[in-house]
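[Meeting: bench + compute handoff]

Bench side (C.D.) handed over the final construct sequence. Compute side (W.E.) agreed to return the predicted structure before the next meeting so the bench team could plan truncations. Sequence as handed over:
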Amino acid sequence: MAIYTDGASRGNPGPAAFAYLFVRDGEVVHEASGRAGVTTNNTAEYMAVIHALEEARAWTDGPVALYSDSQLVVRQLRGEYRVNKAHLRTLKEEVLGLAREFSAVTFSSVRRSDHYVSKADALCNLELDRRDRE
């Protein structure tokens, strides 16, 4: 299964949201979004990965390919970048713990213009717009 995630904040820190899509055979089979409180964009990106993997447990225990436009998060998860901030280290460990519940998880970065990441970004913006209207 392929998972595409995005996190966004309006301000850094600021009101934030996360979103993710599950894709099988080129079709979106599930999508979800939520609010991430007031936080940084990097935290919102991690929260998107965490929420996606939590939900994915109900869909599969097989291999998962997770895609994000956050090169920082992907490279931290793959061990290519150090995680200097304690709160991000905690989020990274949570992701890696969730990843152990699947037969395999790969983390890849894609361009922000990727079709599915663009859809996830639109879901984040809908969450943030909804918050602004309340």
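W.E. noted at the follow-up: DSSP finds four helices and five strands in the chain. C.D. will use this when planning the next construct.
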